[in-house]
Amino acid sequence: MSKFKRVLIANRGEIAKRIYNALRDLDITPVIPIVEKEFNQCFTCYPYAKLLKAEDGIFLDKERLIEIAKENECQAIHPGYGFLAENAEFARMCEQNGIIFIGPPANAIELMGHKETARVIAEKSGVSPVPGFSLKGLTEGEILKKAKDIGFPVLIKASLGGGGKGMRRVDKEEELFENIRIARSESREYFASEEIFIEKYIVNPRHIEIQIFSFPGGRTVYLGERECTIQRRHQKIIEESPSPIVDDKLRKEMGEAAVALADTVSYVGAGTVEFIVDRDKNFYFLEMNTRIQVEHPVTEMVYGVDLVKWQIQEAMGLVVNIPQENIKLNGHAIEFRIYAEDPENNFMPSPGKILKYIEPKIPGVRIESAVRDGYEIFPDFDPMIAKVIVFDTNREDCIQKSKRVLNELVVLGVKTNIAFLKSVIEHPAFLKGDIDTGFVEKYRDFLFEKAKQPTLTKEQVALIASLVSSQKKKDAMLDCGDENLLPEVSGWLP
Amino acid sequence: MAVFIIENEEFNVEKKVLSENRLSAAVNGEEISLNVFKEGDNFYLEREGILIPVFFVSDDRNNLYLHIEGETYLVHRKTVEEQAEGGSQGIASGEIEPPMPGKILKIMVNEGDKVEENQVLLLMESMKLQVEVKAPFDGIVSKLKVKEGQTVNAGEVVVKIEKSV
Fold first, then answer.
1. Cα gap B27→B4, rounded to integer Å
2. Beta strands B63-68 and B71-77: pairing type?
3. Do A412 and B57 touch (CB under 8 A)?
4. pLDDT (tens digit per residue) in B88-131
């Protein structure tokens, strides 16, 4: 094992902070590029790290990242999630330049990154994917016949897609070819490829994923599941572990399926196998994410592990030897993604400056965030403010405690989804664990009604406003003009 | 008097009194009160002996953001200019408050003076901006509570005008 001295973090926001923490725990110096416009609001957030002023677009600039890593004597690069985390070419470039890419081998990224190939591999490993077929080489007649065999509704997907982009649901056969045309053009636009495929649209499924970790030498363990069913605009907003519907037997079945899949591609490191689960608890392979995921902390809380630290240790050649039987589920964890967005306006991002940000200090609550007072959420970055992870002994207590936590989290200055998240966990169906991916749509009325039931009358608020607005002008000015308070930094950083 | 806008509704707060820990005022003419508690820079509401923290911050556009018991509120405080534009000159009480905290630069009237609607009563400086405080209606200056050079808080009554009959 050769210990890393410096590791480049090729990411920003909360995940950069998360990786920074793991590196600091291991006594490795983090090297973090920060784009110019974020520099002032970030540079004191990372003490003991080497910070670099970087150009816009740095996190997608493969050559430049490798250059920076070399210039700063980094032995490895951690890509986080998004950006280049699942880019096989980048993983290869790192290798060619003698830099360790903290992630699986390029080959595994490539195989799993291609949705159709991944489906074939899943089948080979004995894990059934959602019934479907590739459009490659088929005539219109053949496509229609196969689609009818699966049965409508069907889902058209971009082979290289992700994050809900390039996905189209088709309910009737008359609408099939029009949607194929649109899906092709979307796929070309987002993923530079016209390859698409069709699969059965499973109505109101659950979205459950298995966390795996493969140690060098071909041994893979699974760390239970994450229930990621509560979504808006095809993106997860609440994740929990364990899932309210997964029992020991199903966990073992899904876990072993995920492990078989990982072993087929000689996987290394942290990965996630996503499944669609129908009403009868049949599970179908959806895709594999070859990176650390946004929602990894819920698994860490209930299994008492540090996945990012494992990733780094594994990359250093350290053998983390934990047998499957030692991986024990303990308690319940729920993650809430706090976004600067406007739920009432179709969850559109609502960028701006966060004037006040206070994290509640409550035992068993973990908050992952890079935000602080005066932090600006820029329109061209992900509008995530924080991830709030709540841990307790069981689901019921965990939900109860989550209400307190969400009530005590203070984010002022931008619109957020906090009130909306609170109404989700107050819905009787959520409490029962009776959820599917259509939850937000189905209970729209309840969720939005619940989100606006203030305890104070507007008159009382006006009265309070008249008191505090006359007394807090000085502080308010501090909060709004904080750039001026930052010291000159040009002297000591490149 | 101060005018606040909450979700497009206007609220006139006048006759504000803070005595002991009791805050009361007429909001749109209706008397309401709350128990408040202040410790350093922290504010609390007090309800049946229970303290409820009030988190707040303002931006540079006269917006005040509040977080109370897990609810957030956005309150816009109307400036004198906005109040004048809106033509809200019928302020019944005649209790005049500055739109924001600042320094009294010049006082143009004396107690007992007859004033006309929109006549400038005093000139103040706030955040490097000169603001004229005008009479809301014809009347007589019944009370002048400030001196030139004095610093005042927003919400503090500086002049009282008795309406002419």
1. 10
2. antiparallel
3. yes
4. 434 556 778 776 667 888 898 988 899 988 888 888 776 556 77
pLDDT tens digits for range A123-135: 999 999 999 999 9
Q: Three-state DSSP class for A358?
A: strand
ipTM over 0.90: no
pLDDT of residue B91: 52
Closest in B2, B33, B41 to A466, CB measured: B2
> Which ranges in chain A are annotated with CATH 3.30.1490.20?
131-200
Tell me the average pLDDT of chain B. 85
Question: Does the annotation count A337 as an active-site position?
Answer: no
* CA angle in degrees (0–180, nearest 5) for A359-A363-A368: 45
Q: Tell me if the pTM is above 0.90.
A: no
Contacts of B7 in chain A (CB under 8 A): 458
Residues B8 and B58 in one domain: yes
- The predicted structure's pLDDT at residue B126: 61
Say if strands A76-78 and A100-101 run parallel, antiparallel, or are unpaired.
parallel
Mean pLDDT, rounded, for B24-43: 92
pLDDT at res. A471: 55
How far is Cα A119 from Cα A117, in angstroms, rounded to an integer?
5
> Do the chains contact at B58 and A479, CB–CB below 8 Å?
yes
Catalytic residue chosen out of the listed positions A168, A206, A251, A291:
A291
Q: Do A469 and B58 touch (CB under 8 A)?
A: yes
How far is residue A435's CA from residue A442's CA, in Å, rounded to a whole number?
10
Note down the domain range covering B30. Answer: 2-77
Percent of chain A surpassing pLDDT 90: 81
> Would the CB atoms of B11 and A464 count as touching at under 8 Å?
no
Dihedral sign (CA A241, A245, A247, A253):
negative
CATH architecture label of A206-451: 2-Layer Sandwich (3.30)
Read off the pLDDT of residues A429-481 as tens digits, 9 standing for 90 and up.
999 999 999 999 999 999 998 777 778 999 999 999 998 876 544 443 333 33
Best of A464, A472, A474 to mutate (most B CBs within 10 Å, chain B) = A464
% of chain A exceeding 70 in pLDDT: 94
Return the H-helix or E-strand segment holding A349. strand A348-349
Residues B26 and B52 in one domain: yes
Contacts of B27 in chain A (CB under 8 A): 459, 462-463
Contact A463 B59 (CB under 8 A): no
On whether both B45 and B99 belong to a single domain, the answer is: no
Of the candidates A251, A271, A429, A419, the one whose C-alpha atom is nearest the C-alpha of residue A324 is: A251
Residue B85 resides in a domain: no
CB contact (8 A) between residue A473 and residue B4: no
Q: What is the mean pLDDT of chain A?
A: 91
DSSP for residue A129? B
Residue of B nearest to A470 (CA): B154
Nearest CA in chain A to B155: A470
Could you report the per-residue pLDDT of B47-61, keeping only the tens digit for each? 999 999 999 999 999
Q: Is B2 on the interface with A (CB under 8 A)?
A: yes
Q: φ and ψ at A387, to 5 degrees?
A: -115, 125
